[in-house]
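Before a colleague's protein record goes any further, I have to sign it off. Would you go through it and say whether the fold makes sense for this chain? Take the sequence as given and treat only the tokens as open to question. The record follows directly below this note.
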Amino acid sequence: MSKEKKTKKNSTVKSWWQEFKAFISRGNVLDLAVGVIIGGAFNAIVTAFTSILLSVCTWGVPGGLAGLVTVLPAANDAQRVPSDITVDGASLKQSYTATEWATLSQADDFTTAIGGMYTKHGSSFYYNGAAIIDWGAFINAIISFLIIALTLFVIIKVVNYLHKKREALKAQALEAYYEKHPEERPVPAAPAPAKPTTEELLTAILEELKKKPDSEKPAK
């Protein structure tokens, strides 16, 4: 590589590095980075608080919200439990209670494959292929949204209140300073002259036309 090309390459790298330093040192980029970090930490706090309130709200629901499901009738073979699979000579069912599942899982011919065909919702086990309406997840999402929205609303109200209180204290301190040092009080700027209205402009134009001699007036 010739000396000229090497110098040009070094100059390009140096230029890119200077642009990169200028980019990352901008105030808005640093503010964005701080905001992302604080937002992540704040999200963890809100999530934990939401989980606590959600547990309190669903405390009296048997099996929790996860058990609020509706199993729709099977519309095709994929939604039906295979009829050729039996445990202790009995065909599998669409769903089992916790007690029934405990008994079923103790059978000699119960296998891991059979256990993987079911998913627990609340205190019951449902066949994975069945069409299930998960009301619990829907209600859970609504409650979580309301709790998060209320939490953010309260936090924003508190922050706005503290901001207004701070601005009021700053104004009081500044006013007290000007009372002790009146010579430093800034002179209020003169109000800007009011702009003439459309009617005033038309009236002025008519007055100017009246002042012109008849020879200069526009022909009718």
Observations:
- The helical segments are 3-24, 27-57, 98-105, 112-115, 135-180, 198-211.
- The chain has a mean pLDDT of 81.
